[in-house]
Amino acid sequence: MKNYEILFIVKPTLSEEDLKKVVANFENILTSNGATIKENKEMGQRELAYEIKDFKSGYYHLFEVETNDDKAVKEFDRLARISNDIIRHLITKLEK
User: Fold this and answer.
1) DSSP class of residue 85?
2) pLDDT exceeds cutoff 80 at 96
3) Exposure class string for 51-90: b at 16+ Cβ within 10 A, else e
4) What are 48-64's pLDDT values in tens digits?
5) Percentages helix, strand, coil for the chain, rounded to the nearest 5?
6) What does the H/E/C string look like for 34-78?
7) Measured between alpha carbons, how far is 17 from 59 in angstroms, rounded to an integer?
8) What backbone torsions phi and psi does residue 65 show, to the nearest 5 degrees?
9) Taking a C-beta distance cutoff of 8 angstroms, is the pair 4, 96 a contact?
């Protein structure tokens, strides 16, 4: 099993309801592609170190994912890159 940590920043202009929809959508992308989410942590709104796409803050969210292959993580990466709601994401492979 491979373990990944996925941190993504959602744009701050979304409502609470829309934010939950974005997180649920990306959670569904991971689980439907065979990954298991071990931890789903909402880190709240934080200031960014520098402006990203004209935003000075964003909602941080963290997934810890376990999967047999990297299909789910690659699909998350692909869709996060084209999403208008995610302003930045980082995928880290955890060594155990």
Assistant:
1) S
2) no
3) eeeeeeebbbbebebebeebebbebbeeebeebebbbbbe
4) 999 999 999 999 999 99
5) 30, 50, 20
6) CCEEEEEEEEEEEEEEEEECCEEEEEEEEEEEEECCCHHHHHHHH
7) 13
8) -120, 145
9) no
**What's the token pair of residue 8?**
């993504």
Rg (CA), the chain: 13
pTM above 0.85? yes
Cβ neighbour number for residue 9 with a 10 Å cutoff: 22
Q: Hey, how many other C-beta atoms are within 10 angstroms of the C-beta on 10?
A: 23
